[in-house]
Design a protein that fits this description.
heterodimer, A: 249 residues, alpha/beta, 2 domains, 11 strands, B: 328 residues, mainly alpha, ABC transporter involved in vitamin B12 uptake, BtuC, globular, binds adenosine-5'-triphosphate, binds magnesium ion
Chain lengths: 249, 328
């Protein structure tokens, strides 16, 4: 039987009178990029937080590889295979770039209960970390303190940390935000290749990137998914244009 | 002039070692006692530095562990000196005079209590964490005051310093040697731990719990273990402190002591290997020299603290090495 890697089943979450997500059921198949688009405040980040376990839904479930992970904590879901990047970079700003990615290696290899040997001198941890840095093009900056990175580099570092996890699925909240034209292009071609390793649930406002990358697009408005389809289908749906796209595409 | 941090560290340690040796030659035992006091307070603060400096857990209740270490020593030695038995439900003991045994008990007990306190306190953060740890501190303080069996408010005097195989612990310089070696061993362990995978994760957990969780690690568990180790080290220092004074009293549990440990760290440099050591030396020196002149010597401490917080976030180490601390 065919089974998606990641799926949500009727995720619903309200903040008081505000319905941030309403009965959201989406799925992510292997090797695909499924983009979620929608205006500001549509509930995209709230959806991601429920998928990753940072927020508990009022109702609904999340399954990963067919297993219900709704009861698992954030770190257990990460361990089960969710590799997530944050809309607002969430990094250890006082640490160097390489320390940030080595943290990812620690998580991936479950190597945190080691107390003696220097983490930065542990071969397997560093190799995994440096491979990720090379792939996003940050290897030259490995000894730079995160606080001194440019905004775009921090976005790349977010992705690099997720790469160290070799996750079953990537969940990315606006990886292109603030990257600029050139940066967005690079990130776009990188994500394009990445889908072969693990599918990507991509929340993004950059429509060029979304329509270039996505195999499927879901449109969220006021907490509800109003349409799901291929880029072409979405482009031509009248209610989508009205609600969100306008004349952008 | 800018100094490299490790030379500064070495300089301070060597100075701290030479001072009592010099005092021994000059026949000034009181100076040795002062140096020992500094070493023990430093050890207690190194323990706290693990939780506060690396892990970002501002514990205002570390006197709990200091006091537990002190009372572990006091109670065991009291039963040994009065030839009475201490019965703990299942088994009985006649107490002990052996330092290594006392240290072990002190560390196990304070570690266990740190586990419980950490488990409850780590549900909170920020000001709430400070308040809840303070509350635990007060709980133990008032318990000790009302614990009549072991001296209550008056505390317990131990007449003979506990023994260490092969040494005469009553000779000040020998007792200093024991404390100094323990401090050095702890510093080595601290340095290893700080750069180890665990230290890296703890350091990350201070900066962002959500980041740590996103890579599949449980930040609370990492912090909890750090808190336990931290409590155990401070507990060891408490046992030594009680042995230095041959006296334990509820003041070892006081919130002032918890506060002083924090102050030591801030003066020296938060999260720095030698921060607590430098802080303890400055503290004991001020306490001694200014304390002789005026009862208000704490004011000068407050002024130093204020200057450091305002002008040099990295503490004295940061000022001397010219490098701002990584930590706030
Ligand atoms: N913790 C919260 N408490 C109350 N309201 C919240 C909370 N988090 C989000 N919201 C509200 O829920 C709605 C959806 O927010 P969300 O961040 O999911 O939007 P989004 O689609 O990610 O928007 P953007 O494109 O701007 O990132 C918004 O109106 C927001 O103000
Ligand atoms: Mg968002």
């Amino acid at each position: 039987m065919y089974r998606p890697i990641l799926a949500t089943h009727g995720l619903t979450k309200s903040f008081g009178a505000l319905n941030a997500t309403r009965d959201v059921s989406i799925d992510l198949n292997s090797k695909e990029i499924h983009a979620i688009i929608g205006p500001n405040g549509a509930g995209k980040s709230t959806l991601i937080k429920q998928i990753c376990g940072e927020m508990q839904p009022d109702s609904g479930r999340v399954t990963l590889d067919g297993q219900d992970v709704s009861k698992l904590s954030t770190f257990a879901r990460a361990r089960a295979g969710l590799g997530r990047t944050f809309q607002v970079s969430d990094l250890c700003r006082e640490d160097t770039v390489v320390e940030n990615v080595v943290l990812g290696s620690l998580g991936a290899e479950g190597a945190v209960w080691r107390f003696w040997k220097s983490a930065l001198k542990t071969r397997d941890l560093c190799e995994r970390a440096e491979r990720a840095l090379e792939r996003v093009g940050l290897i030259e900056e490995r000894y730079t303190r995160c606080a001194n990175l440019s905004h775009g580099q921090r976005r790349q570092l977010e992705v690099a940390v997720a790469l160290t996890l070799s996750p079953r699925a990537f969940i990315m909240d606006e990886p292109m935000a603030g990257l600029g034209v050139e940066g967005s292009k690079q990130m776009t071609s990188f994500l394009d290749g990445l889908r072969k390793e693990a599918p990507i649930l991509l929340v993004e406002h950059d429509m060029d990137a979304v329509f270039a990358l996505a195999d499927r697009i879901s449109v969220m408005v006021y907490g509800k998914v109003i349409a799901t389809g291929t880029p072409n289908e979405i482009r031509n749906r009248k209610e989508v244009r009205e609600a969100y796209l306008g004349d952008a595409v | 002039m800018k100094f490299e941090e490790r030379y500064l560290n070495l300089f301070v340690l060597v100075g701290l070692l030479l001072l009592p040796i010099w005092a021994q030659a000059m026949d000034e035992p009181f100076t040795i006692t002062l140096a020992t006091r500094a070493v023990i307070l430093a050890l207690a603060a190194v323990g706290l530095n693990l939780a506060l400096g690396i892990g970002g857990m501002v514990s205002f209740g570390h006197a709990v562990f200091f006091g537990i270490g002190g009372y572990a020593m006091g109670i065991l030695a009291y039963h040994a000196q009065t030839y009475t038995t201490l019965s703990l439900g299942l088994f009985e003991t006649g107490g002990t005079n052996s330092m290594p045994v006392i240290w072990l008990v002190a560390m196990l007990l304070s570690g266990a209590v740190a586990f419980v306190i950490g488990l409850l306190s780590l549900r909170t953060s920020g000001v709430y964490f400070i308040m809840i740890t303070l509350a635990f501190g007060q709980m133990f303080y008032y318990f000790a005051i009302s614990w009549a069996q072991y001296g209550g408010e008056d505390g317990l005097s131990i007449y003979v310093r506990n023994g260490f195989p092969g040494l005469n612990t009553l000779v000040p310089i020998e007792f200093f040697g024991i404390c100094f070696v323990l401090l050095c061993v702890t510093l080595v362990l601290f340095a290893r731990l700080q750069s180890s995978p665990f230290g890296l994760a703890l350091n990350a957990a201070r900066q962002s719990k959500s980041r740590v969780a996103a890579v599949g690690l449980n930040p609370t568990r990492v912090k909890l273990l750090a808190f336990v180790l931290s409590g155990a080290v401070t507990g060891l220092a408490g046992a030594l402190f009680a042995d230095l004074n041959r006296f334990v009293s509820p003041t070892m549990f006081s919130w002032q002591l918890s506060g002083e440990l924090i102050v030591l760290i801030i003066i020296g440099g938060v999260g720095r290997l030698m921060g607590p050591v430098i802080g303890a030396c400055v503290f004991v020196a001020l306490e001694h020299f200014l304390g002789e002149i005026t009862d208000f010597w704490h004011v000068s401490l407050g002024i130093i603290l204020l200057c450091i917080v305002l002008f040099g976030r990295g503490g004295l180490i940061g000022l001397i090495t010219g490098k701002e601390g990584a930590h706030v």
